[in-house]
Each structure stands twice: as C-alpha cells, then as structure tokens.
Design a protein that fits this description.
437 residues; alpha/beta; Rossmann fold; 11 strands; disordered C terminus
Amino acid sequence: MNLSRPATASTIPEGFPPVDPERWPDVARLPRTSPARTAVARRLVERAFARLPLRVATPDATFRLPRPRGGGAGEPTLTLHNPDAFHRRIGAGGLIGFGESYMAGEWDADDLVGVLTVLARHVDDLVPAPLRRLRGAWVRRRPAVDRNTPDGARENIHRHYDLSNELFALFLDPGLTYSAAVFDPPPTAGPRGDGELAIAQHRKIDRLLDLAEVGQGTELLEIGTGWGELAIRAAARGARVRTITLSEEQLDLARRRIADAGAADRVSVELLDYRAVRGRYDCVVSVEMIEAVGAEYWSEYFTGLRRLLAPGGRVALQAITMPHERMLVTARTHTWISKYVFPGGLIPSPEAIARESAAAGLRITHDSGYGDHYAETLRQWRERFLHEETAVASLGFDRVFRRTWEFYLAYSEAGFRSRYLDVRQLRLTADDTDVTP
C-alpha cells in the first residue's frame, strides 16, 4: 500500500506554528533531493513498516500494513500528516530526516516510545542486507567542528548543558541528577511513583560512592560535576572533593547548592577539562561523562584516570553502552542525536571500555548493568517534561525545541526498553606502579 499523497505547499500541519528558519534551518525547509531518491526511501519505508508490529495512519486512512504473521492488537500507531515530506526527508537524510520530520510536525504517534521501541528492536533489519553496503551514499560523516578537542569539548557541553538550569529543574528530581537512577524494587515490578525518583537517584549515587570506597578523609576527584549532588553526598561521608565541569551554568548553580548544603569547606568546583587535571586521588568518580569524550580521546581519558589515581586508588564509572558493532557504525555517522542533542557524543561498547581501560593499566573489578532502571528514569523525565510544557515555553523554548526534546527523551527510553542500550556501573583499579602525575 502506498503511503504517499500529493505534495502540499507547506510541510507544516494545520495549527502548527511556523518554524524559525534561523534557529531550525533544516526543519523549516524540505531538503533538496531527487524524486528517485525519495521514491527509493518510500519503498524502503513501506517494506520496513510491513514487517513491523505497527499501524500507520495517513490523511486518508488508518491501516495495518499487510504482512504474513498475525497480530495487530495493541500495536502503536504512527500518523503521517504529510507522507510526501516524510519520505523526502528520509530519502535525503535517513534517520536524521526521520527525526527532523517529527520536529517539523509531519508525523506523530499515539505512543511515541512504543513506535520508537519497535524501530529500535529491528534497527538492523530496516534496510535490506544488499543495500547496507550502499549506506555511505546517504549517511553523513560527523562534522569536524564537533571533535572533542579542549575547545570543541567546551562548546559541545555548552550547547546542551548551558541551555538553562531552569529547564533542567522542570523535569529532573530536586537534586538535579541527570543520569540513571536505581529503583528498589526494580522497574520490572511496575512503574515507580514520581516521589521515588529522588530516593532512587540517591541510591545510585551511594552505590557509586560505595564502589569507590568513599569515606572519612577520602580525597575524591569527580569528573563531570552535574549540579553537585554527588559531591554533596560524598562530602557528607567526610570526603574532600574536587569536582570539575565544562558547563558554566552547572558551575554556578553547583557552587550555590554546595554552599547551601554547608559543604563549601570540603568541596571545590572548577571549570576545567579532565585533560588539565593534575594530582593524585584516592578515588575518581565519573558518571555518564565518557559518552561526551569521543572515541578518538578514549585512550587519553583512561590514561588520565590511571595517572590521577594514588597507589591503591579506585575509579567508579557509570556509562551508557551499546553493542560493539553498532558503536562502530555510529562512530562514523552523524546522527540525529549528535546533530541536535549531544554534539560530539558517542556511546561506547563494553568491549571498547574494557580494551581502552586495560591499555591504560586499569583493571575492571566490578561490572553491573541496569538498563531497565534507565528506561524508568527516562519515562519519568519525559512525563514531567511534557507536563511542564507551558513552563518550558515561558523560558523561551519554542515548539520545535519541545518536540525535539520529547523525541530525544522518548528515543532514549526506547533504546533501553529494546535493550539496544544499557547502563553499567564499573569499578576499576590499578597496580601501585608509580605514574608521574
């Protein structure tokens, strides 16, 4: 069944406000691409959808694409408001075009996470095997400007974490912890109440501090301050904490929160790149920061961790991971996430972490995953974000931004629900061989 209709003069659905072409140039206008390329994209999309447990709605009808196996009840519905624009964007930009089409309002879903989870579970089957060899003809390379050089890393962090402290406060827990929580009982027992998020975030922090054996008199380095909650809890254990960040917004608020907690005499916060840190520490803690390092700098990152450890020291690392083969593909590709959410970011594989840490002289002594907990964390963030839509708009974030972040949070949740992504807590140790600080 053909999912197209005659092209309209505008890609914007009725009632959708105009898109700011200066802020969102690739969303405000359709990409230039050949009719043949659009036709190929349409055929591939129809072929993929026909094999997936999805329903599709167009301006003319709602239907379930025919396929050999049964089912249909409870399948999420993807609604195409402008099928021609949808296929054209995918033909020009692949998955980037798929995301931009959502940002533009050209498609919606009754269950966005459900649709994206189906796609994530079948990501390797969406394109026929013979055509995967031609992938280089339509995917884009990561822009050189996004490389995580010292200057580039600061700009990349600025583009995400310096958006607005008020924005993050609208959907995070009161401690402003922007990483996976640990729920008890686990989310497989059912969704957790919103009031449990703060407790679950403290449970996660405490597990990391336990892994690092943080206690009275511990000299702790934190790489990636966030808004200071881990540093505050470490100081409450009697540790002396040095924490570093590249986000000026986080720096200012973290300092205020640490002072308000009465921990300013035990915690110092600095605007500093991890590559510039000197000294030796009993332990180093880094929570979901490795994803912002970039593959070309992983060796330098792990070498730095080893160099910064005092004899007998420990590293507690929390990292999102993906399968190794997918990581290799993603590392070469400019993705929707890298374009609009985390420039310069790359999620490592467990194999990459093991290889790079071993090469730096570090040994993994603990490794546990809990991806289901991240899915629940993201569900709560996404629902809070959507509930606060008016407040987000009052901060000056337009509708395209709000759809971008809804898509980002749903896309991430789907990655964990499909087990395409995982999150792991690791403990790494080194021998006592001297390393020049």
